[in-house]
């Protein structure tokens, strides 16, 4: 003989209860929220890395133009980079040049800084490079003797 209480215990349960379904949906919603935040964080860091690489390329280009003699090594304030407009990109990049004399005679320190325009970008990126180079304004003076030949070397 079985009592009604024992029948209830022996009966198998089929399906999920409402509490289990709601708990599963809450866990799923929380996981989706966390994954969304991770994706947003990853996208922001990817943009920052891309912008930092772009700033580094333009900074190296400006240093190379100065060392090659295409630009004079003189201090320049925040100036837009013209190459950005020719590439069809937004004109949010600015560069500045600082020239300082160093302790070594005939050398100068050139610092080029490339930044994004802070009025356009919420989190602007900045990159700087420093290069020591021979001061092109100090041209070595060769002395000449009475015959007009220079004394700085041997004739060949």
Radius of gyration: 34 Å
| Strand arrangement in the largest pleated sheet | 1-2-3-4
What is the count of DSSP helices, taking H or I runs of 4+ residues? Answer: 3
Structural class: alpha+beta
What does this structure look like?
This protein has about 160 residues and is of the alpha+beta class. The protein contains 3 helices and 4 strands. It has a 4-stranded antiparallel sheet with strand order 1-2-3-4. It is rod-shaped and about 120 Å long. The model has no long low-confidence stretch (mean pLDDT about 80).
Q: What features would you highlight for this structure?
A:
40% helix; alpha+beta
Quick take:
The protein is an alpha+beta fold and 156 residues long.
Summarize the SSE layout with pairings.
Layout: H1 4-10, H2 18-68, E1 76-80, H3 82-86, E2 93-101, E3 107-116, E4 126-134
Antiparallel strand pairs: 1-2, 2-3, 3-4
């Amino acid at each position: 003989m079985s009592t009604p209480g024992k029948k209830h215990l022996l009966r198998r349960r089929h399906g999920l209860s409402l509490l289990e379904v709601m708990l599963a949906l809450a866990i799923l919603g929380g996981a989706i929220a966390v994954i969304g935040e991770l994706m947003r964080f990853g996208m922001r860091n990817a943009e920052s890395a891309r912008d930092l690489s772009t700033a580094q390329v333009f900074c190296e280009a400006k240093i190379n133009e100065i060392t090659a003699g295409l630009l004079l090594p003189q201090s320049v304030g925040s100036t837009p980079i013209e190459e950005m407009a020719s590439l069809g990109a937004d004109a949010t990049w600015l560069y500045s040049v600082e020239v300082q004399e160093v302790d070594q005679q005939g050398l100068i320190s050139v610092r080029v800084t490339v930044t994004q325009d802070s009025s356009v970008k919420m989190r602007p990126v900045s990159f700087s490079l420093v290069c020591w180079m021979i001061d092109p304004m100090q041209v070595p003076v060769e002395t000449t003797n009475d015959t007009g030949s220079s004394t700085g070397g041997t004739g060949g």
